[in-house]
Design brief:
Layout: E1 5-10, H1 24-41, H2 46-49, E2 54-65, E3 74-84, E4 88-96, E5 102-114, E6 156-162, H3 176-184, H4 189-194, E7 199-204, E8 212-222, E9 225-234, E10 240-249
Antiparallel strand pairs: 1-3, 2-5, 2-7, 3-4, 4-5, 6-8, 7-10, 8-9, 9-10
Length: 250
């Protein structure tokens, strides 16, 4: 089996925005699908991990696109494991039309956790470290790695919302892509008519759950560049905790 997975998708109309181009959130979902297909086919995917009370959780994701697939377009996502350590592994993505045209790339960092304790687990303990057999360290992914999102403290609260049913995934917390969708909603359609999102990166810190209130703090750090900080507040204790940070370049 090839170390690099290659999967075909289609930009369905109801996954596209007003411009007829795919929503970044839906593209992110398809990247995560490709990651699951790749890991499952090679013996370290969620289907197997759930039987031993383990799960992959996304720690960081960076997506940089020169163009988004248009509605009805068939596109390909290639994915591969770039490196692995005891508690984290890095996985890359390439989005193309399958004919040589590249739409963009993605970089991600994943951790493996115990689904009962929610604590990190040793990745190498799975099948005697078999993930090393699938590492590809010579395929380029020519976008910057996601780093720490630094903010000056001059951010402003721009939106608050409560976590609801449609935000929650199979792990019982807010779905990774839902954060992306909520952050992108901080700008209206008029903004997106004049600006194209080139790069989105997100670093996850904690998990939000049903019953939490999420607050979105935004700061502009350069022309067409913003950082967003999300926090959760437990409505019973009123304790506020940072959940993730994002950086957007238009």
């Amino acid at each position: 089996m090839n170390k690099i997975g290659k999967y075909e998708f289609i930009a369905e109309p109801f996954h596209c925005d007003f411009s007829g181009r795919m929503f970044l959130g839906h593209l992110g979902n398809q990247m995560l699908n490709a990651a699951d297909f790749h890991s499952t086919d090679r013996g370290f995917g969620m289907k197997y991990l759930m039987t031993i009370k383990r799960s992959w959780v996304l720690s960081r994701l960076a997506i940089e696109m020169e163009e988004m697939p248009a509605q009805y377009a068939h596109f390909t996502i290639e994915t591969w494991v770039e490196s692995a350590m005891k508690f984290f592994t890095s996985r890359n993505f390439c989005v193309s039309d399958g004919q040589g045209k590249v739409y963009g790339y993605g970089r991600s960092i994943w951790a493996m956790i115990d689904t009962e304790t929610r604590q990190p687990c040793d990745i190498y303990a799975i099948d005697n470290g078999a993930i090393n057999d699938w590492i590809v360290d010579d395929k380029p992914c020519p976008i910057e790695k996601g780093g720490r999102v630094k903010m000056s403290g001059n951010d402003e609260l721009v939106r608050s919302l409560e976590v609801n049913y449609n935000d929650i995934d199979i792990n019982g917390h807010v779905n990774s892509v839902k954060y992306i969708e909520h952050v992108l909603d901080l700008w209206d359609i008029a903004w997106y008519r004049e600006h194209r999102l080139k790069r989105f990166e997100i670093a996850y810190v904690a998990e939000a759950h049903q019953g939490d209130k999420m607050d979105f703090y935004r700061e502009q750090i350069a022309d067409n560049e913003f950082c967003v900080r999300l926090t959760k507040t437990d409505l019973s204790s009123q304790k506020e905790t940072e959940v993730c940070r994002c950086r957007l370049v238009f």
